DUF4832 domain-containing protein (Nitrospira japonica), 496 residues
Amino acid sequence: MKEKGSGLPTSGALVKTSRSFPILLTIWYLLLSLATSIDVVTAGEPAAATDDQRASPPLVTVYPLQIDDILYNPGMGFADFHFGFDHPPSRTQYPRSTVAYFRWSWADLEPVEGEYNFQLVDDVIAQARAKGETLAFRIMTEYEDGSPAWLLDKGVASVSVSGGTFPDYNDPRFLEAHERLLKALGARYGDSPAIDHVDIGSIGCWGEWNMACCLGVEARCKQLYATEDNQRKITDWYFQYFPAVPLVALVGGQLAYATAQGAGWRGDCFGDYGYFRSDWNHMDHVYARKLRDPVVAEAWKHGPIEFEVCGVMQDWIDKGFNLDLILQKGLEWHVSVLNAKSEPVPESWRPRIEEFQKRLGYRLVLRELTHTVETIPGGIVTVRSQWNNVGVAPMYHDHPLAYRLRSNEGAVVAQWESEARPMDWLPGSSIQVEDAHPLSEDLPAGRYHLDVAVLSEDGSTADVELAIAGKRADRWYPVSALTVRREQARDGAPSP
């Protein structure tokens, strides 16, 4: 007899019953094990049932099989950067994505004062949805068109820089108009499940909160750069107008201030171990130092960590960078999304990139599930489950855990959501969940599959792949079975 803790079977799941059963029920479980690759064992030798056992319904425990596949889940993995800029790499060159990432200039979003180009964003959301992706974005005020001409024509000072126009971030007219922009975007997208996250951008070169584009005009850019008060003011607007969307602070910005309020953070030169200079790099001299602040170091627990590669991955090879070190740092820093700029991953590195994909973000494992094995119409189904998140980060959207009963013909006769919140499941913890659900009195008698899933935020479909075997095409996982009988026998067990 295989006891709990003695290991998982090679396929299917291990099932353990909680008390002795009538002979017909035991035979039924043996047939179930043959039909579904479930190993069935009893918890002990048959014995005479006590009064307490007769009064309580029988329970069964299953142990799903953990898998090591890459999971393609919302809010994690490789970013689809501007859909490949009209030349997307093939699936063999670049990992499949679940997050589309775009950066837009203010001028693109508000070409005429007070007229917001929502259609631009809506079209990208629709394209992303068709690809199974949600959208993340950043607003830029410097790059290319940057701040709109109508704003600069009001007399807002600026200076020409490499690739764009650097505005006066302290001009009251800039601040007033930019708050209106954020308010308008937030009203439309601030609680949309189509949005994965929003960068706290807006300031500096490329919205990165720096002056790296100010070559030759550094002094003028410094005069125009946002004061500490205005940096915080703009940061606060993001929290005010995007209250239900995860926010990501740029590493050059108000990082401690934003992460203390719940933001995650991102670095846009990930992998730099000497890309620009041999005596200085982003990995050691920027990111690692920022993480000395415990507020920033703990930010991953409530906000996503995002990185963008420095150059492209082929540059890492050309410069002799250590891929294993880079990827390990990403995992240590709890990365959820990596923007590799939709440029091909070097072929020789793909096996190691695939292993990295198996570890980044969240990865939910259902370790065991104990449930009522028999009930009657109108009865209570009790489900107790144990979960682990074996990834490096939690999920940052509120995806509900759910169960359902499904007939052999595929009809869903009951479905309910758990009170548990998977977004609270941090890596390294063991999560115990217990739910009790009353069934309809009109539920037909019969034998039903018990399925589990983590749903989309609106609860309409199963949306999250679990790290267990058995996924159906609809992303539900059949983990056990339950019998509904017509009436209750005198001893408390449902009658045949």
Notes: The chain has two domains: 13-69+363-484, 77-357. The radius of gyration is 27 Å. The domain at 77-357 is CATH 3.20.20 (TIM Barrel). The chain is about 25% helix and 25% strand.
